[in-house]
Amino acid sequence: MTLKIEHIGIAVNNIKESVSKFTMLGLELKEVEEVEVENVPYKVAFLTEGNINIELVNTTAKNSLVTDWLEKHGEGVFHLAFEVADLEKTFAQLQSQGVKFVWNEIKNGSRETRIALIQPEEFNGVYIELVQKK
């Protein structure tokens, strides 16, 4: 299993305000996208600087992983995303080792990726997202 940090996900209350803050640091806004996962609409903004990718995540849904996170923890680091070459293989391997995932299947993510999300209690309270690009 080869892992590469693909991005750092940050839960935010307001995408527009957060983009303004991060661009002040010199990060470049690459794209803003609306994506639906598990029938929950999310708005995400991707910012970059060199090899660093930051994903700002927000939703208007009353019940979602991000809503729950913001209520419990406030704004801040929500997940670390690791790019993997073979998501099915990595998913099966980790499940066989007892790792607990949020969903028992691979989902479509933003930017035409496929994702699997590991429960935060598995890795020190932070969601781990496995990402495979098309």
Topology, pairings included?
Elements: E1 4-11, H1 15-24, E2 28-37, E3 40-49, E4 52-58, H2 65-73, E5 76-83, H3 87-96, E6 107-108, E7 113-118, E8 127-133
Parallel strand pairs: 1-4, 5-8
Antiparallel strand pairs: 1-5, 2-3, 3-4, 6-7, 7-8
The class by helix and strand makeup works out as alpha+beta
Biggest beta sheet attributes: 8 strands, mixed
Radius of gyration: 14 Å
Strand composition percent: 35-45%
CATH level-four homologous superfamily name: 2,3-Dihydroxybiphenyl 1,2-Dioxygenase, domain 1
Order of strands, main sheet, comes to 2-3-4-1-5-8-7-6
Q: How many helix segments?
A: 3
Q: How far apart lie the N and C ends?
A: 18 Å
What is the total tally of β strands? 8
What low-confidence regions span 5 or more consecutive residues with pLDDT below 50? none
CATH topology: 2,3-Dihydroxybiphenyl 1,2-Dioxygenase, domain 1
CATH class: Alpha Beta
Question: Under the CATH scheme, which architecture would be assigned?
Answer: Roll
The helix content is 10-25%
H/E series, N to C? EHEEEHEHEEE
- How many distinct domains? 1
Morphology call: globular
What is the arithmetic mean of pLDDT?
95
